[in-house]
Amino acid sequence: MSLFSAPFDPAADTALVTGAGNGIGRAIAQALVGEGVRTVFADVSAERVSAAIAASARPELAVPWVGDLAKLEACDALLAASRAALGGVTHFVHSASPPRREADHALAVDRRTWQEMHAVNLDAGFHLARELAKGLIAAKRPGSFLFLTSLHAGTPRNLPHYSTAKAGMAMLVKELAKSFGRHNIRVNALVPGAIAAGGFVADASLARHIPLGRLGEANDLAPMALSVLSNKISGYVTGAAFVVDGGLSLTNWFEAPVLDE
Ligand SMILES: NC(=O)c1ccc[n+]([C@@H]2O[C@H](COP(=O)([O-])OP(=O)(O)OC[C@H]3O[C@@H](n4cnc5c(N)ncnc54)[C@H](O)[C@@H]3O)[C@@H](O)[C@H]2O)c1
Fold it and tell me: Which residues fall within 8 angstroms of residue 17, CB to CB, at 6 or more apart?
């Protein structure tokens, strides 16, 4: 059998994807059910969850869940619902994040917006991952977790609530990878560039800063996400950050040389 023909074991692997109603989370959740993996599609928007499941290749493998992950009790409700529907989650993707608004700069962002950004990205990510890990450790099962961070974990975005939340997530990935490694639970980060998905309002002129010459799409992220999630393909990979940005992060004050003249 070829290495990539069966990246998951549908008899044993189950997934939970937050932010599955839109953009990158939606593309990853849809790709997982496409591989035969029973997957909880979790999001704050009921309409988005329904539409994402209806448009997936195998809707019968999708489990809808709707709630606000800024609230700890909603995170616990999601864990209970996932356990009830799947019997346990082996693959966790944390993609949910509140919208970014350019107006929320350092002097403008209010306390509620600051807290919600941290609550969904960092607090929910930590709580969900830790609780899922407890179940896997008790059951002696391997696991694979993937956090959607950002290039702005390391470079400013003019949105301090967002960049600090993502910087926290980047370290959380390393902390959890180190702590859970001996239990065969891998934890990695997926680092998108400028992806015209929904959370990022794309300015087409940005494409000139991207070596591959175009903005990304949510579906550009899904193949790498599944490769990193797969224990078969990435079984010896943990604590790593995979940048999927068309080369955007290579951009600096030097233009690329013109080679065709
Ligand atoms: N799009 C990009 O260019 C880009 C770049 C870097 C990082 N990222 C990260 O990738 C992830 C996905 O980005 P996207 O552009 O696909 O985002 P998106 O806005 O399209 O999707 C995010 C989803 O999260 C859901 N959500 C928001 N708040 C929630 C809450 N409180 N509880 C539950 N669900 C909630 C939204 O309803 C939405 O469906 C995010 O973590 C984002 O920070 C995106």
Answer: 25, 28, 29, 32, 39, 40, 41, 42, 92, 93, 95
